[in-house]
Structure formats: structure tokens, C-alpha cells
Amino acid sequence: MYAHIRHAVLACTFAGATVLAGGCETNPVTGRSQMMIVSEDQAQSVSAQAYTKTVSQARRQRKLDTNSAVSARVQTITSRLVAQAVKISPASANWNWQVHVIEDPNVNAWCMPGGKMAVYTGLIAKINPTDAELAQVMAHEISHALLQHGREKMSRAVATNAALALGSIATGVDLSGLENVAMVALELPNSRTAETEADRLGIEIAARAGYDPRAAISLWQKMARLSGGAGGPEWLSTHPSDQTRIANLQKLVPKMMPLYEAASAGDSRAGRRPRGER
Ligand SMILES: [Zn+2]
Q: I need a labelling partner for 66 at 20 to 30 A (CA). Which of 8, 167, 205, 244 fits?
């Protein structure tokens, strides 16, 4: 994805095992060393397969929402976000970005490696997000993909698979039959570090797309209010909401306001309706 990704010379350790050089990559956006056993090509290709399967299954079950106002709204918001995402990560301009609205009562949304996104109708129904809040959800998910967090989780899933000999790591992992890894990785919680990174980048992408950064705060407050008890947001099981997250986002808001205001001003000059919450 990034032409200038450097492979760490030293080995990095993960889950008690030492992974040889080539397993570690320094992320050019964050500077953080990530353990990557699964190559980017592998991550994208298994994700594309898993996505196609998920979407066609939803279509067969008549649970794919393609025509509603909700779907149109999600398409509009995500295309504005993607337009900014590809500026931050030019390689992602080559991704086949896709988004679908899936009829599912769970409060959930995700973006797989390679830009394969989904929003569940349960999130729309139970959170009732403004455009700006929905943009925060999707920008956060897009950031996970840009920052290779899905690939990192897939690597973790593969690394912890005891059936996999360490020797295969050096020669490249055979991912045949590992399409499920893409789905398993979706359900693995992100690390706290990955969450902080996605919060930081997500609020920026949304601001650059003209969405009010203050919506990040109201979104997480709404999510937190829904948590606890049965039927809480599935999204929170992989993206835990806590006061630290909200406090960190609050610190970012003043830094993001100028980006949001510049994007909104650009819209007005172009004679379009100013972006923001409706
Ligand atoms: Zn997250």
C-alpha cells in the first residue's frame, strides 16, 4: 500500500513468539511498528472474497438495502469521506471502495482491508445518527482500513493459530481456506492503540470532508447510552467506548474545527449547501 513502508531489521515479538524480520512493518502514517504476517495483497484478496460472500448472502436473503433513502445517504457520506481518505493515503485510490447497507438489527458498521464497507440498519435505527455522526462512524472505520488495522488483526488471528508452523512465516503464509480469517478478524477487538489511531485519523477525514468534529463526541455519547443490557451495540464490542476515548476526542475537536470550517467555506463558495449536520 505504501511504497515507502520500511521493513524493520530487528525482529518484533508478538504473543510470546518472535516473528522474523519481514513480519514487522513501520506504518508510514503513525510510525508504529505493526506485526504483519499477512501481506497486504492477501488481506485485500481474502477480504474481497469475504465481502462478496457477505453481500451475495444478504442479497439472497433480501437483506441488502440498495434503493432506500438510507442507502443513498450512506453512499453520499462515504463517497465524500473516501475522496479525503485517498488524499491521505494515495495508494488507496486504487482500491475498489464499496459500501452496502445490510438489514440487520445489530448496531454495527465496518470497513475491511481494501475499502469494503458495510452499515447495518440497526445502527441507523437505534443511534438515529445525524449525517455528521454517521460520517464519524464511517471515517473511523475507513481509518482502520487505511492504517492496516484489519490486516494487523488478521495477522494476529493467523499467528495465534497453533496449527501454523512458524517456518511458514518466513516463506509466506498459505491463506487458502483462510477466507474466514477476514470475518474472524472483523470480530476481534481492536487494540487500544489502534482505536486511538483510528479516532485521530477518522475525525480528521470527516472534518476535511466537511463534517462537524463535535459529532464525534455526541456519537460516542449516544453509543455509550445504548450500552449495557441486552441488545447493546455490537460495534462497542470491537470499539469499546470509555471516558478516555471521549476526552481524547474532545481535545482533538479544536484542532479539527479549522479543517471543518475550511471545507464548509469551500462548499459555500462553490454555491453548494454548506455541509454539516442536517
Ligand atoms: Zn475502531
A: 205
Question: Which residues fall within 8 angstroms of residue 165, CB to CB, at 6 or more apart?
Answer: none
The single residue listed with the C-alpha cell 453548494 is: 272
Tell me the per-residue pLDDT of 4-27, one tens digit each, with 9 for 90 and over.
Answer: 323 332 334 443 344 433 477 888
Q: Long-range contacts made by residues 22-25, C-beta under 8 angstroms, separation at least 24? A: 22/170, 23/155, 23/169
Catalytic residue among 133, 141, 197, 234: 141
Ligand 1 midpoint to CA 189 (Å) = 8
Please compute Rg for the chain using Cα positions. Answer: 19
Spacing, Cα 115 to ligand 1 middle (Å): 15
Q: Distance from first CA to last CA of the chain, Å, rounded?
A: 35
Block residue for cell numbers 476526552: 247
Q: Ligand 1 center to residue 140 CA distance, Å?
A: 6
Q: Which residues pair with 101 in a beta bridge?
A: 65, 119
Q: How confident is the model over 175-212, as pLDDT tens digits?
A: 555 567 777 777 777 888 889 999 999 999 999 999 99
d(CA 134, CA 123): 9
Centre of ligand 1 from the C-alpha of residue 272, in Å? 32
User: How far is ligand 1, taken at its centre, from the CA of residue 167, in Å?
Assistant: 32
Question: What digits encode the pLDDT tens for the residues 34-81?
Answer: 877 788 888 888 889 989 999 999 999 999 998 899 999 999 999 999
- CB-proximal residues (5 Å) to ion ligand 1: 190, 195, 198, 239
Residue 229 has pLDDT above 90, yes or no: no
Give CA–CA dist 274/7, Å, rounded: 44
Is 141 marked active-site?
yes
